[in-house]
Design a protein that fits this description.
Number of helices: 13
Strand content: 25-35%
Keywords: RNA-binding
CATH architecture of the largest domain: 2-Layer Sandwich
Domain RRM: 107-179, 245-318, 336-409
Distance between the termini: 42 Å
Helix content: 25-40%
Largest sheet: 4 strands, antiparallel
CATH class of the largest domain: Alpha Beta
Strand order of the largest sheet: 2-3-1-4
Organism: [Candida] arabinofermentans NRRL YB-2248
Number of domains: 4
GO molecular function, one term: mRNA binding
Number of strands: 22
Radius of gyration: 27 Å
Protein name: RRM domain-containing protein
Structural class: alpha+beta
Length: 428
């Protein structure tokens, strides 16, 4: 059999997708959709379901296992006319295939850090915008929800687009979970009592579909499976790069500058740009790992071209969680963009050469811009730490000494944070 899809014909007309998938213990599933059966095929109106798997071998195994118990299955689903046949399938979309390989995409999504007292209906309505939902389980006391979309493509849209949307859930953590059909196939479940909420601490929450416990911390997501005596780590979501904020850019033109790279990045604040011209590569570290994943996904799907070359997108070495000092500064508005503005309208800021000479002592500079006839300037550093140092120095306890060291050139200026243009919404 050379197809990823199976057709389940003759199902009763009122069957629900969740009821059907409850009997499917094979996966991962790519998508599951209804197809209305033709009236001239059966004496009464029935439903057909097209079930597509990620891999052909899974479809073949599912077929060989279920076709031998078709009669029993027809009783379970109350569908006496049930037939199971191979169904011609289209090749897996390249975007879906890439997301599966690089990010561990499945049709299952976990949403955590949900605001208190949010109605379940609102969660459903907001996430249904990304595609039809098969199941939704809301764990209210843990502020988490587990969803299974009917297609992996819908889950990909949710993971990529929700953090950048204006939804009430845009600040929530969203990541891929295990397809319940896959888990049923690969792991023997413990009794229900063993995966109840008694195993979860204040920083953990239970996935009731997959018998998994998620431990949620900054920049890291660990999955555990409860046993009768202890919690044993059985999986780390390495495939979805949870916590990795660094994206690799390769195949760069030898003349590519950091400014050109930053002009190509949108959707998330940057912590660091590390350009290595002699190797034609660059590593870009975002503040948030979700925005790094979004850029990675969009850069893979929609090619990034700099200097006429298609840039190769990949993951860099895992950067780990954001430094606490940097995180605290970001909460107060820090970015790698330094604003130098006037408190009066008498003096203009120094010229670009002086600015570059003066502020290079804090770190390497990417770009300097002037606005309002030279009454304000923006110095973009390659590292947000450089900007933080500059703001702290000019506004700290030793500010007077700092100003003297620069011959009081900036005594009349306000020095604070500007807006990182890389954090602007992606270009349409």
């Amino acid at each position: 059999m050379s197809t990823r899809s199976l057709k389940f014909s003759g199902l009763r007309p009122d069957i629900e997708l969740r009821e059907f998938l409850d009997v499917i213990e094979f996966g991962p599933i790519e998508k599951c959709v209804f197809e209305l059966a033709k009236e001239d095929t059966y004496s009464s109106a029935t439903e057909n379901i097209i079930l597509s798997f990620v891999e052909t071998k899974t479809a073949e195994y599912c077929y060989t296992q279920l076709v031998n118990i078709t009669e029993e299955l027809s009783h379970v689903l109350e569908s006496p006319q049930l037939e199971i046949t191979p169904y011609d399938s289209q090749p897996l979309q390249s975007v879906v295939q890439k997301s599966i390989q690089d990010d561990g995409a499945t049709r299952s999504v976990c949403l955590s850090n949900i605001p208190p007292a949010v109605p379940q209906k609102l969660i459903y309505e907001e996430l249904e915008k990304f595609g039809p939902i098969e199941t939704l389980k809301y764990v209210v006391n843990k502020g988490a929800a587990f969803l299974h979309f009917t297609a992996i493509s819908s889950a990909i849209k949710c993971v990529e687009q929700l953090p950048l949307s204006d939804s009430i859930f845009s600040s929530c953590k969203v990541f891929y979970s295990r397809d319940r059909s896959t888990y049923a196939q690969t792991v023997q479940l413990t009794p229900a009592a063993q995966y109840s909420s008694q195993f979860a601490t204040d920083h953990q929450f239970v996935d009731p579909y997959n018998n998994l416990i998620y431990s949620n911390s900054v920049g890291e997501m660990t999955v555990t499976h409860p046993s009768a005596t202890s919690l044993t780590i059985i999986d780390s979501i390495q495939q979805s790069n949870i916590g990795n904020r660094t994206v690799y850019l390769g195949n760069l033109h030898p003349e590519t500058t950091a400014e050109e790279i930053c002009n190509s990045i949108r959707g998330g604040l940057l912590e660091l740009i590390k350009l290595i011209p002699e190797k034609h590569i660059c590593f870009v570290t975002f503040i948030e790992h979700l925005t790094a994943a979004q850029f990675f996904a969009s850069g893979t799907m929609d090619k990034v071209v700099i200097h006429g070359r298609k840039v190769k997108i990949g993951w860099g070495k895992n950067s780990g969680p954001l430094n606490k000092i940097v995180a605290q500064a970001v909460e107060k508005g820090a970015s790698r963009n330094l604003y130098i503005g006037l408190n009066t309208h008498i003096t203009k800021v120094p010229d670009v050469d002086i600015l570059r000479r003066d502020f290079s002592v804090f770190g390497e500079i990417e770009q300097i811009n002037f606005f309002k006839d030279g009454q304000c300037a923006f110095v973009n550093f390659l590292s947000i730490s450089s900007s933080i140092s500059a703001v702290n120095e000019f506004n700290g306890e030793n500010a007077e000494t700092v100003h003297i060291s620069f011959q009081n050139r900036y005594k009349k200026f306000k020095i604070s944070y500007g807006k990182d243009r890389c954090g602007n919404p992606p270009k349409s």
